[in-house]
Amino acid sequence: MTEKALRLGTRRSKLALAQSGQVADAVSQVTGRPVELVEITTYGDVSREHLAQIGGTGVFVAALREALLRGEVDFAVHSLKDLPTTQPEDLVLAAIPEREDPRDVVVARDALKFTDLPRGARIGTGAPRRMAQLNAYARAHGLDIETVPIRGNVDTRIGYVRGGELDAVVLAAAGLHRIGRSDEVTDFLSVDTVLPAPGQGALAIECAAHDADLIAALARLDDPFTRAAVTAERSLLAALEAGCSAPVGALADLSPLSAPLERGGRQADAQTVKEMRLRGVVGTTDGTALVQLSTTGPVPRTHDAAMALGRELATEMLAQGAAGLMGERAH
Q1: Is 48 assigned a catalytic role?
Q2: Per-residue CA distances from 87 to 65, 71, 83, 208 (Å)
């Protein structure tokens, strides 16, 4: 007799279904059980308001978590950058698989790179974090750009460029890669130019805290380095008391071996790497004020050590005036 299928809760977007499908295959391999996708519509998917007005990216998560708590699905897959930093007690992040390329990318008309865009170029993004850093970079390098707030799925956003309404849009490399559209990228933004959102490129596999067998099975998909890195990044975000839609960028990577991460390749062997560098940035969306700092410490071996790394950098950023740059602080 075949074992009962595990039910995986996912959002309905093309990207969510693609990444959930990849996780479903991996879970099926480690458990030997079939996995079926259960599509769930979230408020974030149906609302056309800007994310900051409807509660940040956490609006994509609530419906999936409610389905988990009601027992309608066995586990859920989230884009980690969408998760609020406080974890519900009755749910557990059973696995954070190896991270995809964390960088942001440009999809521009005429295959242009970011620095080759014409004067007055209109660049679309839904993230205050991207606006702050793009505008700061443009200001520092004598570029003349206008950042335009947009929403919508990948097709909608790229459609603004194809239709001529915008000169370029900025998206996450990981998302385009997961839906097989990396060939549309016209420029990869170095993390020295734009730091990604905390957790960008990583997935979170969440299930009920009481399901010990499932937690143990899913844990086989966990990548300890990715978990340590994103835990440090999210700790920074939480310590700044900023919501998912605040203009905060963060990236933890192996120091000084960030080259494999830049290429999106397999991280260097954890045994040979002793240090992790955590970088954080917060700024006003017009790019006139930016606080950008970094700290380097031993690769965190525990959850608490990763949390401490994030808090330490947040404290330094707050001392440099970071709080005043975030507008409404989301409590």
Answers
A1: no
A2: 11, 18, 9, 12
